[in-house]
Amino acid sequence: MTTLDKAPTEAPAQGAPAAPGPVPEPQSPDPERKVKLRGVTREDVFTILGSFTGSLGLDWVLYERVLPFSGALGFLLCWYLLFLAGYFLLGRLQWGALMVRERLVSVVAWSAGLLVVGLIADQIGYVASRGYDAAQHANFFTESMEKTASLSPITSGGALHAVVGSLEQLGLATLFAVPLGIAAAVFMSEIGGRMARPVRTLVEAMTALPSIVAGLFILGIVILTFGFDKSGFAASLALTVMMMPIVTRAAEVVIRLVPGTLREASYALGGSQWRTVWNVVLPTARRGLVTAVVLGMARAVGETSPVLLTAGFTSRMNANPFEGQQISLPLYIWSYVKLPVDEMVARAFAAALTLMAVVLILFVTARMLGGRAAGELSGRQKRKLARAASPAHSARPAEPAPAHVVPAAASVRTAVATGEH
Protein backbone atom coordinates (compact mmCIF):
# COMPACT_ATOMS: atom_id res chain seq x y z
CA MET A 1 0.00 0.00 0.00
CA THR A 2 1.46 3.31 -1.07
CA THR A 3 1.31 6.60 0.70
CA LEU A 4 -1.67 7.70 -1.33
CA ASP A 5 -3.65 4.59 -0.28
CA LYS A 6 -3.33 5.20 3.46
CA ALA A 7 -6.39 6.53 5.24
CA PRO A 8 -6.06 9.95 6.79
CA THR A 9 -5.45 9.83 10.52
CA GLU A 10 -7.74 11.67 12.87
CA ALA A 11 -6.40 14.89 14.29
CA PRO A 12 -5.91 14.81 18.08
CA ALA A 13 -8.45 16.63 20.12
CA GLN A 14 -7.69 20.06 21.36
CA GLY A 15 -5.69 19.89 24.57
CA ALA A 16 -5.04 16.16 24.26
CA PRO A 17 -1.43 15.12 24.20
CA ALA A 18 -0.11 14.13 20.81
CA ALA A 19 0.48 10.45 20.34
CA PRO A 20 4.13 9.58 20.37
CA GLY A 21 5.46 8.43 17.07
CA PRO A 22 8.64 8.16 15.12
CA VAL A 23 10.14 11.51 14.22
CA PRO A 24 10.60 11.74 10.47
CA GLU A 25 14.24 12.09 9.46
CA PRO A 26 15.04 15.27 7.58
CA GLN A 27 15.68 14.60 3.96
CA SER A 28 19.15 15.64 2.89
CA PRO A 29 19.18 17.87 -0.16
CA ASP A 30 20.57 16.48 -3.34
CA PRO A 31 24.30 17.11 -3.67
CA GLU A 32 25.18 20.00 -5.93
CA ARG A 33 26.56 19.10 -9.27
CA LYS A 34 29.47 21.22 -10.47
CA VAL A 35 28.98 22.59 -13.92
CA LYS A 36 32.17 22.73 -15.94
CA LEU A 37 32.00 25.95 -17.91
CA ARG A 38 35.33 25.61 -19.66
CA GLY A 39 37.43 22.72 -20.83
CA VAL A 40 37.94 20.36 -23.73
CA THR A 41 35.70 17.34 -24.09
CA ARG A 42 36.17 14.20 -26.14
CA GLU A 43 33.69 15.45 -28.72
CA ASP A 44 35.68 18.66 -29.17
CA VAL A 45 38.92 16.75 -29.76
CA PHE A 46 37.36 14.33 -32.25
CA THR A 47 35.60 17.17 -34.08
CA ILE A 48 38.80 19.17 -34.45
CA LEU A 49 40.82 16.13 -35.55
CA GLY A 50 38.18 15.11 -38.06
CA SER A 51 37.97 18.61 -39.51
CA PHE A 52 41.77 18.84 -39.59
CA THR A 53 42.35 15.60 -41.47
CA GLY A 54 39.33 15.92 -43.73
CA SER A 55 40.21 19.45 -44.81
CA LEU A 56 43.82 18.41 -45.46
CA GLY A 57 42.72 15.56 -47.73
CA LEU A 58 40.19 17.72 -49.58
CA ASP A 59 42.75 20.51 -49.98
CA TRP A 60 45.28 18.08 -51.44
CA VAL A 61 42.74 16.75 -53.92
CA LEU A 62 41.79 20.27 -55.03
CA TYR A 63 45.39 21.44 -55.43
CA GLU A 64 46.87 18.31 -56.96
CA ARG A 65 44.02 16.78 -58.99
CA VAL A 66 41.22 19.21 -59.74
CA LEU A 67 42.25 22.88 -59.77
CA PRO A 68 45.35 24.36 -61.41
CA PHE A 69 46.58 25.93 -58.18
CA SER A 70 50.08 25.93 -56.74
CA GLY A 71 52.07 27.56 -53.98
CA ALA A 72 52.52 26.80 -50.31
CA LEU A 73 50.81 29.97 -49.06
CA GLY A 74 47.65 29.33 -51.07
CA PHE A 75 47.64 25.70 -49.98
CA LEU A 76 47.78 26.65 -46.31
CA LEU A 77 45.16 29.39 -46.67
CA CYS A 78 42.75 27.06 -48.51
CA TRP A 79 43.40 24.36 -45.91
CA TYR A 80 42.50 26.73 -43.07
CA LEU A 81 39.27 27.86 -44.75
CA LEU A 82 38.26 24.26 -45.44
CA PHE A 83 39.07 23.40 -41.83
CA LEU A 84 36.75 26.10 -40.53
CA ALA A 85 33.99 25.00 -42.90
CA GLY A 86 34.40 21.36 -41.90
CA TYR A 87 34.43 22.22 -38.21
CA PHE A 88 31.22 24.21 -38.63
CA LEU A 89 29.46 21.39 -40.45
CA LEU A 90 30.57 18.69 -38.01
CA GLY A 91 29.65 20.87 -35.07
CA ARG A 92 26.23 21.60 -36.52
CA LEU A 93 25.51 17.87 -36.48
CA GLN A 94 26.16 17.72 -32.72
CA TRP A 95 25.34 21.07 -31.14
CA GLY A 96 22.98 23.95 -31.53
CA ALA A 97 23.59 26.94 -33.76
CA LEU A 98 24.58 29.23 -30.88
CA MET A 99 27.10 26.76 -29.46
CA VAL A 100 28.56 26.11 -32.90
CA ARG A 101 29.15 29.81 -33.47
CA GLU A 102 30.71 30.19 -30.02
CA ARG A 103 33.11 27.29 -30.56
CA LEU A 104 33.94 28.40 -34.07
CA VAL A 105 34.97 31.81 -32.76
CA SER A 106 37.06 30.08 -30.08
CA VAL A 107 38.83 28.02 -32.73
CA VAL A 108 39.55 31.14 -34.79
CA ALA A 109 40.93 32.94 -31.74
CA TRP A 110 43.13 30.00 -30.72
CA SER A 111 44.43 29.52 -34.24
CA ALA A 112 45.25 33.22 -34.55
CA GLY A 113 47.13 33.11 -31.25
CA LEU A 114 49.06 30.01 -32.31
CA LEU A 115 49.89 31.71 -35.61
CA VAL A 116 51.32 34.74 -33.82
CA VAL A 117 53.34 32.54 -31.46
CA GLY A 118 54.61 30.55 -34.42
CA LEU A 119 55.69 33.68 -36.28
CA ILE A 120 57.53 34.99 -33.22
CA ALA A 121 59.25 31.64 -32.71
CA ASP A 122 60.22 31.56 -36.39
CA GLN A 123 61.73 35.05 -36.21
CA ILE A 124 63.65 34.30 -33.04
CA GLY A 125 64.88 31.01 -34.48
CA TYR A 126 66.00 32.64 -37.73
CA VAL A 127 67.86 35.45 -35.93
CA ALA A 128 69.46 32.97 -33.53
CA SER A 129 70.60 30.68 -36.35
CA ARG A 130 72.14 33.55 -38.32
CA GLY A 131 73.85 35.13 -35.32
CA TYR A 132 74.98 32.00 -33.47
CA ASP A 133 78.45 32.08 -35.06
CA ALA A 134 79.18 35.43 -33.42
CA ALA A 135 77.11 35.07 -30.24
CA GLN A 136 78.84 31.83 -29.20
CA HIS A 137 82.10 33.72 -28.57
CA ALA A 138 82.44 35.63 -25.31
CA ASN A 139 84.32 38.47 -26.99
CA PHE A 140 81.10 39.59 -28.66
CA PHE A 141 79.72 40.68 -25.28
CA THR A 142 82.98 41.98 -23.79
CA GLU A 143 84.63 43.93 -26.63
CA SER A 144 83.86 46.81 -28.94
CA MET A 145 84.66 47.22 -32.63
CA GLU A 146 87.46 49.75 -32.07
CA LYS A 147 90.25 47.36 -33.09
CA THR A 148 88.24 45.20 -35.49
CA ALA A 149 88.10 45.60 -39.28
CA SER A 150 85.60 44.22 -41.75
CA LEU A 151 87.74 41.19 -42.62
CA SER A 152 88.77 40.42 -39.04
CA PRO A 153 87.87 36.95 -37.74
CA ILE A 154 84.70 36.38 -35.79
CA THR A 155 86.70 35.98 -32.59
CA SER A 156 87.56 39.69 -32.68
CA GLY A 157 85.26 42.58 -31.78
CA GLY A 158 81.82 42.69 -30.30
CA ALA A 159 78.81 44.84 -29.44
CA LEU A 160 79.52 45.92 -25.86
CA HIS A 161 79.64 49.61 -26.82
CA ALA A 162 76.28 49.28 -28.59
CA VAL A 163 74.66 47.60 -25.58
CA VAL A 164 75.91 50.35 -23.27
CA GLY A 165 74.70 53.04 -25.67
CA SER A 166 71.23 51.51 -26.01
CA LEU A 167 70.79 51.15 -22.25
CA GLU A 168 71.92 54.72 -21.54
CA GLN A 169 69.80 56.26 -24.28
CA LEU A 170 66.72 54.25 -23.35
CA GLY A 171 67.24 55.00 -19.65
CA LEU A 172 67.48 58.76 -20.25
CA ALA A 173 64.47 58.70 -22.58
CA THR A 174 62.44 56.81 -19.98
CA LEU A 175 63.54 59.27 -17.29
CA PHE A 176 62.28 62.17 -19.41
CA ALA A 177 59.18 60.67 -21.02
CA VAL A 178 57.54 58.81 -18.12
CA PRO A 179 57.05 61.78 -15.72
CA LEU A 180 55.91 64.04 -18.55
CA GLY A 181 53.59 61.42 -20.01
CA ILE A 182 51.96 60.48 -16.70
CA ALA A 183 51.62 64.14 -15.72
CA ALA A 184 49.88 64.88 -19.03
CA ALA A 185 47.59 61.88 -18.52
CA VAL A 186 46.68 63.04 -15.01
CA PHE A 187 45.98 66.52 -16.33
CA MET A 188 43.65 65.27 -19.06
CA SER A 189 41.80 62.74 -16.90
CA GLU A 190 41.72 64.39 -13.45
CA ILE A 191 42.11 68.15 -13.97
CA GLY A 192 40.48 68.76 -17.35
CA GLY A 193 39.44 72.26 -18.29
CA ARG A 194 39.74 74.16 -21.53
CA MET A 195 43.28 72.98 -22.26
CA ALA A 196 42.48 69.27 -21.97
CA ARG A 197 41.11 68.96 -25.50
CA PRO A 198 44.06 70.74 -27.23
CA VAL A 199 46.53 68.65 -25.23
CA ARG A 200 44.73 65.42 -26.15
CA THR A 201 44.66 66.44 -29.82
CA LEU A 202 48.38 67.19 -29.75
CA VAL A 203 49.15 63.86 -28.09
CA GLU A 204 47.10 61.95 -30.65
CA ALA A 205 48.90 63.78 -33.47
CA MET A 206 52.30 62.96 -31.96
CA THR A 207 51.36 59.28 -31.72
CA ALA A 208 51.31 59.01 -35.52
CA LEU A 209 54.51 61.05 -35.89
CA PRO A 210 57.13 59.25 -38.04
CA SER A 211 60.33 58.51 -36.18
CA ILE A 212 62.45 60.30 -38.78
CA VAL A 213 60.54 63.51 -38.07
CA ALA A 214 61.40 63.26 -34.37
CA GLY A 215 65.06 62.83 -35.30
CA LEU A 216 64.94 65.80 -37.65
CA PHE A 217 63.27 67.91 -34.96
CA ILE A 218 66.04 67.24 -32.44
CA LEU A 219 68.67 67.62 -35.15
CA GLY A 220 67.34 71.02 -36.17
CA ILE A 221 66.62 72.39 -32.68
CA VAL A 222 69.26 70.91 -30.40
CA ILE A 223 72.20 70.23 -32.71
CA LEU A 224 71.98 72.83 -35.48
CA THR A 225 70.29 75.70 -33.63
CA PHE A 226 71.89 75.44 -30.18
CA GLY A 227 75.17 74.03 -31.45
CA PHE A 228 75.33 70.79 -29.45
CA ASP A 229 77.26 67.88 -30.89
CA LYS A 230 75.76 64.54 -31.77
CA SER A 231 75.61 62.46 -28.61
CA GLY A 232 73.63 59.88 -26.73
CA PHE A 233 71.81 62.65 -24.89
CA ALA A 234 70.51 64.09 -28.18
CA ALA A 235 69.39 60.61 -29.20
CA SER A 236 67.57 60.19 -25.89
CA LEU A 237 65.69 63.45 -26.55
CA ALA A 238 64.55 62.10 -29.92
CA LEU A 239 63.45 58.87 -28.26
CA THR A 240 61.60 60.93 -25.65
CA VAL A 241 59.57 62.54 -28.40
CA MET A 242 58.61 59.05 -29.58
CA MET A 243 57.86 57.63 -26.13
CA MET A 244 55.89 60.43 -24.50
CA PRO A 245 52.65 60.23 -26.57
CA ILE A 246 52.55 56.43 -26.20
CA VAL A 247 52.92 56.67 -22.42
CA THR A 248 50.40 59.51 -22.20
CA ARG A 249 47.63 57.80 -24.13
CA ALA A 250 48.02 54.45 -22.40
CA ALA A 251 48.27 56.07 -18.96
CA GLU A 252 45.15 58.17 -19.58
CA VAL A 253 43.12 55.08 -20.45
CA VAL A 254 44.36 53.28 -17.32
CA ILE A 255 43.64 56.22 -15.02
CA ARG A 256 40.11 56.55 -16.38
CA LEU A 257 39.49 52.91 -15.46
CA VAL A 258 40.01 53.64 -11.75
CA PRO A 259 36.54 53.47 -10.11
CA GLY A 260 35.09 56.84 -9.19
CA THR A 261 33.97 55.45 -5.83
CA LEU A 262 37.60 55.36 -4.69
CA ARG A 263 37.95 59.05 -5.41
CA GLU A 264 34.68 59.79 -3.60
CA ALA A 265 35.86 57.76 -0.60
CA SER A 266 39.07 59.73 -0.48
CA TYR A 267 37.24 63.06 -0.65
CA ALA A 268 34.82 61.89 2.06
CA LEU A 269 37.76 61.16 4.35
CA GLY A 270 39.07 64.68 3.86
CA GLY A 271 41.68 64.08 1.19
CA SER A 272 42.50 66.86 -1.23
CA GLN A 273 42.64 66.39 -4.98
CA TRP A 274 46.41 66.07 -5.24
CA ARG A 275 46.49 63.66 -2.28
CA THR A 276 43.71 61.60 -3.87
CA VAL A 277 45.60 61.38 -7.14
CA TRP A 278 48.93 60.62 -5.46
CA ASN A 279 47.76 58.16 -2.80
CA VAL A 280 44.67 56.58 -4.37
CA VAL A 281 44.46 56.91 -8.16
CA LEU A 282 48.09 56.32 -9.12
CA PRO A 283 48.66 53.37 -6.73
CA THR A 284 45.45 51.74 -7.92
CA ALA A 285 46.53 52.09 -11.55
CA ARG A 286 50.15 51.09 -10.86
CA ARG A 287 50.19 47.95 -12.97
CA GLY A 288 48.47 49.65 -15.87
CA LEU A 289 50.96 52.51 -15.70
CA VAL A 290 53.80 49.99 -15.83
CA THR A 291 52.21 48.58 -18.98
CA ALA A 292 52.12 52.09 -20.44
CA VAL A 293 55.82 52.52 -19.69
CA VAL A 294 56.59 49.14 -21.27
CA LEU A 295 54.72 50.14 -24.43
CA GLY A 296 56.72 53.35 -24.63
CA MET A 297 59.99 51.50 -24.15
CA ALA A 298 59.01 49.00 -26.83
CA ARG A 299 58.45 51.87 -29.26
CA ALA A 300 61.78 53.54 -28.48
CA VAL A 301 64.18 50.64 -28.06
CA GLY A 302 64.10 49.59 -31.71
CA GLU A 303 64.24 53.01 -33.36
CA THR A 304 67.11 53.54 -35.80
CA SER A 305 66.51 56.73 -37.79
CA PRO A 306 66.32 59.17 -34.82
CA VAL A 307 69.49 57.67 -33.37
CA LEU A 308 71.24 57.82 -36.74
CA LEU A 309 70.52 61.54 -37.06
CA THR A 310 71.28 62.55 -33.48
CA ALA A 311 73.79 60.10 -31.96
CA GLY A 312 76.15 59.58 -34.87
CA PHE A 313 78.27 56.46 -35.33
CA THR A 314 81.35 55.21 -33.53
CA SER A 315 83.17 51.90 -33.20
CA ARG A 316 84.72 52.65 -29.82
CA MET A 317 83.34 52.49 -26.32
CA ASN A 318 81.71 55.74 -25.15
CA ALA A 319 79.97 55.45 -21.79
CA ASN A 320 79.37 59.21 -21.54
CA PRO A 321 76.07 60.04 -23.26
CA PHE A 322 76.64 63.79 -22.92
CA GLU A 323 79.87 63.99 -24.91
CA GLY A 324 80.91 62.39 -28.18
CA GLN A 325 79.06 60.21 -30.63
CA GLN A 326 77.46 57.04 -29.31
CA ILE A 327 76.08 54.00 -31.09
CA SER A 328 73.10 51.85 -30.14
CA LEU A 329 72.10 48.28 -30.97
CA PRO A 330 69.59 49.18 -33.74
CA LEU A 331 72.16 51.41 -35.41
CA TYR A 332 74.82 48.71 -34.97
CA ILE A 333 72.54 46.20 -36.71
CA TRP A 334 71.65 48.56 -39.54
CA SER A 335 75.29 49.51 -40.15
CA TYR A 336 76.74 45.98 -40.28
CA VAL A 337 73.96 43.87 -41.79
CA LYS A 338 74.32 45.56 -45.19
CA LEU A 339 78.06 44.84 -45.49
CA PRO A 340 79.03 42.07 -47.98
CA VAL A 341 81.03 40.16 -45.35
CA ASP A 342 79.66 37.08 -43.62
CA GLU A 343 81.40 37.86 -40.32
CA MET A 344 79.87 41.35 -40.15
CA VAL A 345 76.42 40.00 -41.03
CA ALA A 346 76.78 37.39 -38.27
CA ARG A 347 77.70 40.16 -35.81
CA ALA A 348 74.60 42.12 -36.88
CA PHE A 349 72.29 39.15 -36.27
CA ALA A 350 74.01 38.43 -32.95
CA ALA A 351 73.34 42.07 -32.01
CA ALA A 352 69.68 41.60 -32.97
CA LEU A 353 69.51 38.55 -30.69
CA THR A 354 71.15 40.61 -27.93
CA LEU A 355 68.56 43.36 -28.46
CA MET A 356 65.78 40.81 -27.99
CA ALA A 357 67.38 39.61 -24.76
CA VAL A 358 67.79 43.18 -23.48
CA VAL A 359 64.16 43.99 -24.25
CA LEU A 360 63.01 40.82 -22.49
CA ILE A 361 65.08 41.64 -19.40
CA LEU A 362 63.77 45.21 -19.32
CA PHE A 363 60.15 44.11 -19.64
CA VAL A 364 60.47 41.45 -16.92
CA THR A 365 62.16 43.98 -14.64
CA ALA A 366 59.41 46.52 -15.30
CA ARG A 367 56.76 43.92 -14.46
CA MET A 368 58.52 43.02 -11.24
CA LEU A 369 58.81 46.68 -10.29
CA GLY A 370 55.12 47.14 -11.04
CA GLY A 371 54.47 46.28 -7.43
CA ARG A 372 51.35 44.95 -5.85
CA ALA A 373 47.91 44.57 -7.27
CA ALA A 374 45.37 47.35 -6.99
CA GLY A 375 44.27 47.77 -3.38
CA GLU A 376 46.92 45.50 -1.87
CA LEU A 377 48.56 47.05 1.18
CA SER A 378 52.31 47.47 1.34
CA GLY A 379 54.42 46.39 4.28
CA ARG A 380 54.76 49.97 5.44
CA GLN A 381 51.00 50.51 5.35
CA LYS A 382 50.38 47.28 7.27
CA ARG A 383 52.85 48.33 9.98
CA LYS A 384 51.15 51.71 10.30
CA LEU A 385 47.77 50.06 10.69
CA ALA A 386 49.19 47.68 13.27
CA ARG A 387 50.68 50.55 15.29
CA ALA A 388 47.43 52.52 15.05
CA ALA A 389 45.48 49.51 16.33
CA SER A 390 47.84 48.77 19.22
CA PRO A 391 46.73 49.62 22.84
CA ALA A 392 49.58 52.14 23.12
CA HIS A 393 47.92 54.38 20.54
CA SER A 394 44.32 53.78 21.48
CA ALA A 395 42.53 52.82 24.68
CA ARG A 396 40.25 50.57 22.71
CA PRO A 397 42.01 48.39 20.17
CA ALA A 398 40.61 48.58 16.70
CA GLU A 399 38.88 45.46 15.54
CA PRO A 400 40.56 43.71 12.64
CA ALA A 401 38.97 44.29 9.30
CA PRO A 402 36.69 41.45 8.20
CA ALA A 403 37.84 39.21 5.44
CA HIS A 404 35.21 40.45 3.01
CA VAL A 405 36.40 44.08 3.08
CA VAL A 406 37.35 45.22 -0.37
CA PRO A 407 41.16 45.70 -0.50
CA ALA A 408 40.84 48.82 -2.65
CA ALA A 409 38.67 50.49 -0.01
CA ALA A 410 41.23 49.53 2.63
CA SER A 411 43.97 51.13 0.58
CA VAL A 412 41.93 54.33 0.28
CA ARG A 413 41.41 54.46 4.03
CA THR A 414 45.08 53.77 4.69
CA ALA A 415 46.40 56.25 2.14
CA VAL A 416 44.19 59.12 3.29
CA ALA A 417 43.92 58.47 7.03
CA THR A 418 47.59 57.71 7.64
CA GLY A 419 48.74 60.53 5.34
CA GLU A 420 51.26 58.40 3.47
CA HIS A 421 52.76 60.22 0.53
Automatic annotation (TrEMBL):
Keyword Heme: no
Superkingdom: Bacteria
Chain intervals for the UniProt region annotation (Disordered): 1-33, 380-404
Keyword Acyltransferase: no
UniProt keywords, alphabetically: Cell membrane, Membrane, Phosphate transport, Transmembrane, Transmembrane helix, Transport
Main subcellular location of this protein, as a coarse class: membrane
Transmembrane segments: 69-90, 102-121, 170-188, 208-228, 344-364
Biased composition (Low complexity): 9-18, 387-404
The ABC transmembrane type-1 domain, residue ranges: 163-366
Gene3D superfamilies recorded: MetI-like (1.10.3720.10)
Residue ranges with Pro residues bias: 19-29
Pfam families: BPD_transp_1
Membrane topology: Multi-pass membrane protein
Subcellular location: Cell membrane
CDD domains: TM_PBP2 (cd06261)
Described function: Part of the binding-protein-dependent transport system for phosphate; probably responsible for the translocation of the substrate across the membrane.
Family that this chain belongs to: Belongs to the binding-protein-dependent transport system permease family. CysTW subfamily.
UniProt-recorded name of the protein: Phosphate transport system permease protein PstA
Species this chain originates from: Kitasatospora putterlickiae
Organism phylogeny: Bacteria, Bacillati, Actinomycetota, Actinomycetes, Kitasatosporales
